[in-house]
Design a protein that fits this description.
Layout lengths: L3 E5 L12 H13 L4 E4 L11 H15 L4 E5 L5 H14 L3 E5 L8 H14 L4 E5 L1 H4 L5 H10 L3 E6 L5 H11 L6 E4 L5 H6 L4 E3 L7 H12 L3 H14 L9 H11 L17 H12 L5
Helix pairs in contact: 1-2, 4-6, 6-7, 9-10, 11-12
């Protein structure tokens, strides 16, 4: 089966809120060494929404240079100021990013015709591969499969979508509606535990945050899918199901994912953008308990 595991990389900050590029490079190296199929920079788990535009530019430039085509590099260029998106996207594509990813406007719900107009304008102006990002828990609306199909019919540079929805109903519709017409269109789920369901349904895999913490488990699972290893797929699903308890440790998942990466020794500091609170001692203990069931700490 065709299957990929892409990491939406966490962004590492020091105690003063500055980018910690040395630790960031170590994170990328760990992901590449463990065989991750791609790295998404400036995604939701990467806290793009709370970073300055200059920080996002700096991180994107650094990531492109550091990843250096050793795995796929996708840069999130989303912004509530649409005039930022096009020049930012053009810059990173010129520098060597494999693609950009763009979420729709947030804060106010958008209707299908408004979303078509919005993405149509951006796709017209960006000369390079673009992925859409559907995250209704954060935007307040869902991009309809028919809207995605209409956009793909008009724009060859629309390459795929990340569908961050806990269930698979909407993702299955995207696969049926869009991939039935454009088989090369890529549909990724946004929650790790949906990866196998996505692939078995004809999708392309996952862009999931657990791979920041356990890339070796994630890549073994996706390899089992590629090799049609039913037993390996089942083992991977059960392991990921247990590890997915990480997301229930606290109401804000970014500090928890970062603390888990710190506990594993992948990063040195778990600082987040203000006002996200650090993990509490009780939460850290729970993280250790969850990880300890599957790996040696």
């Amino acid at each position: 089966m065709n299957a990929s595991y892409i990491t939406p990389a966490i962004t590492i900050f020091d105690q003063n809120g500055n980018l910690d590029l040395k630790s960031q490079a170590s994170l990328y190296e760990n992901l590449i060494r463990n065989g991750i199929d791609g790295i998404l920079v400036n995604g939701s788990i990467g806290e793009f929404f709370a970073m300055t535009f200059e920080q996002r530019q700096e991180l994107a430039r650094f990531a492109i240079k550091t990843i250096a085509h050793r795995t796929k590099c996708i840069i999130g260029t989303s912004d509530m100021i649409s005039d930022h998106i096009v020049p930012f996207s053009r810059e990173v594509l010129t520098l060597g990013a494999d693609a950009v990813m763009i979420i729709g406007p947030y804060y106010f719900p958008m209707k299908d015709d408004q979303l078509f107009t919005y993405f149509d304008s951006l796709l017209t102006q960006i000369d390079g591969p673009v992925y859409l990002y559907n995250f209704p828990d954060r935007t307040g609306y869902t991009i309809a499969p028919e809207t995605v199909l209409a956009l793909r019919q008009k724009h060859d540079n629309l390459k795929g979508i990340k569908d961050t929805i806990s269930g698979m109903d909407h993702t299955r519709e995207l696969i049926k509606v869009v991939k039935s017409v454009y088989p090369d269109f890529e549909v990724y789920s946004g929650f790790d535990d949906n990866a196998a369901h996505n692939v078995l349904s004809g999708g392309n895999g996952i862009i999931g945050g657990l791979s920041n913490i356990v890339p070796e488990i994630c890549t073994a699972w996706i390899r089992a899918m590629r090799e049609d290893d039913t037993a390996g797929i089942a083992r991977g699903q059960q392991t990921i199901n247990r590890l997915f308890d990480i997301y229930s440790v606290g109401p804000l998942f970014v500090p928890i994912i970062k603390e888990a990466a710190k506990i594993r020794g992948i990063i040195a500091d778990s600082c987040c953008t203000f006002p996200m609170p650090p993990a509490t001692p009780e939460q850290c203990e729970r993280i250790r308990e969850i990880l300890g069931r599957e790996i040696n700490l």
